[in-house]
């Protein structure tokens, strides 16, 4: 094992010098245990990792400390996978109780996400209510909201990112959308689904001009609120209420974004998902992996049954 090479890998992930040194020391501590067991670190299994955690427990280390050490080993085996030395991470099935990790809510499958999207219906022009005074505003906002919902489900955007989109950010000829960076996110260019392109063209050419006329506003923002302010949380509040009524599982838009990122992790590599999600640090993306790990206690019982 070449510590310098592992350190270089950690540095490429944006880790600080102190973190790199600590992670390397934790790895060496794990290796000392394996040497006593006549095992090799590159071929270690989940059983060896679990035994190492038991050793840490006997030292009465806090769960947060054990989680940090586990994370250092997870990075090491991700590096080994990248090198082609193995195709699995023995740390992946393990989770430490009582550590602070990102909550992933009740995750939607991609099929459920599409049901959420296509289930949000747009009323027909000949709807019996079309003569009501409020009808035009209702129809226009429903069309707007469906386009907004599509950006969360297919591009995994946050509501704040969607609010910042301007008409200049649309690249419909290329089939892309440009997303500005924020205080906690990176800029990126994402691909649009074919049906989104058609809906965005209709929204930009027909729906949006009518909303601007209706609200008497002038703004470069793509999505026009019907309130007095240029931006309005009512857009999201009203859409959320409709989705909650139609889908008992729906909690909020963070839940939908988390579901999208979790789905991406099943089909793209970690760096690709980091870019698509706009995460500044790969550790933010890794948080979604950590929450998919099984409980540590189950592994201890599996490998070292009591009684």
Q: State which percent range the strand residues make up.
A: under 5%
Q: How are the strands of the biggest sheet laid out side by side?
A: 1-2-3
Task: Please count the helical segments.
Answer: 13
The shape, in one word, is elongated
What radius of gyration results from the CA coordinates?
24 Å
**Largest beta sheet, briefly?**
3 strands, antiparallel
The class by helix and strand makeup works out as mainly alpha
Describe the structure.
This protein has 307 residues and is mainly α. Helices cover 56% and strands 3% of the residues. It starts with a helix and ends with a helix.
Please name the defining characteristics of this protein.
mainly alpha, single chain
Element layout with pairings:
Blueprint lengths: L2 H10 L4 H20 L9 H13 L4 H21 L26 H9 L16 H21 L3 H6 L5 E2 L4 E4 L8 E4 L2 H22 L18 H13 L6 H13 L4 H8 L4 H9 L5 H8 L4
Antiparallel strand pairs: 1-2, 2-3
Helix pairs in contact: 1-2, 2-4, 3-13, 6-8, 6-10, 11-12
Kindly summarize this structure in a few lines:
56% of the residues lie in helices and 3% in strands. It is mostly helical and 307 residues long.
């Amino acid at each position: 094992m070449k510590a310098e090479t592992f350190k270089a890998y950690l540095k490429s992930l944006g880790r600080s010098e102190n973190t790199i040194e600590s992670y390397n020391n934790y790895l060496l501590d794990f290796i000392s245990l394996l040497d006593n067991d006549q095992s090799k670190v590159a071929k270690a299994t989940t059983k060896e990792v679990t035994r190492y955690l038991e050793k840490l427990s006997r030292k009465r280390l806090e769960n947060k400390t054990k989680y940090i050490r586990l994370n250092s080993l997870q990075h090491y085996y991700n590096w080994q996978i990248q090198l082609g030395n193995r195709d699995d991470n023995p740390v992946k099935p393990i989770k430490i109780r009582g550590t602070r990790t990102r909550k992933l809510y009740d995750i939607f499958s991609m099929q459920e996400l599409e049901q959420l999207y296509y289930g949000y219906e747009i009323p027909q022009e000949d709807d019996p209510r079309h003569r009501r005074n409020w009808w035009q505003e209702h129809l226009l906002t429903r069309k707007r909201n469906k386009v907004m919902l599509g950006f969360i489900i297919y591009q995994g955007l946050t509501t704040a990112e969607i609010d910042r989109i301007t008409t200049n950010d649309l690249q419909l000829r290329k089939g892309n959308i440009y997303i500005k960076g924020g205080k906690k996110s990176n800029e990126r260019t994402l691909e649009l689904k074919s049906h989104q392109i058609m809906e965005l063209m209709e929204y930009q050419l027909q729906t949006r001009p009518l909303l601007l006329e209706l609200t008497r506003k002038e703004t470069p923002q793509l999505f026009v609120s019907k309130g007095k302010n240029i931006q309005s949380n009512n857009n999201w509040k009203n859409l959320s209420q409709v989705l909650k009524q139609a889908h008992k599982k729906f909690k909020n838009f963070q839940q939908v974004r988390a579901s999208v990122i979790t789905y991406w992790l099943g089909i793209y590599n970690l760096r690709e998902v980091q870019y698509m999600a706009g995460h500044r640090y790969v550790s933010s993306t890794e948080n979604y992996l950590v929450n998919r790990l099984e409980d540590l206690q189950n592994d201890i019982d599996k490998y070292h049954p009591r009684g």
